[in-house]
Design a protein that fits this description.
This is FeoC like transcriptional regulator. The protein is of the alpha+beta class and 80 residues long. It has 3 helices and 3 strands. The chain has one domain (2-78): Arc Repressor Mutant, subunit A, CATH 1.10.10.
Length: 80
C-alpha cells in the first residue's frame, strides 16, 4: 500500500512523468507500475497519455512500437 501512495505522490509532484521515469525512481518493472497507475486512473486523479502513435518512429521508414523503450512514450499526468 505504501508504494501505491508513493507512486501517486511522485506523479502529483512532477505533474507529468513517463513510465520509464517512474520505473527508474521506484526500481520497479513498468508492468507492475501500470497496475498501480491504473488504480489512480480509475480514481480520476491520474490520466495516461500514450505518445507512441504520434512519434516519427525509430526506424528509417518510420513507425513505432518496435522500440524497446516504448515506455518512454507512455506518460502519466496529475489531474487530481
Amino acid at each position: 500500500m505504501a508504494l501505491l501512495l508513493q507512486v501517486k505522490s511522485y506523479v502529483e509532484e512532477r505533474r507529468s512523468v513517463s513510465l520509464t521515469d517512474i520505473a527508474n525512481r521506484f526500481n520497479a518493472s513498468p508492468e507492475a507500475l501500470r497496475g498501480m497507475l491504473d488504480h489512480w486512473i480509475r480514481k480520476g486523479v491520474i490520466r495516461r497519455q500514450d505518445f507512441g502513435d504520434n512519434c516519427g518512429g525509430c526506424k528509417p521508414s518510420g513507425g513505432c512500437g518496435t522500440c524497446a523503450a516504448s515506455a518512454v512514450f507512455e506518460f502519466y499526468d496529475w489531474v487530481g
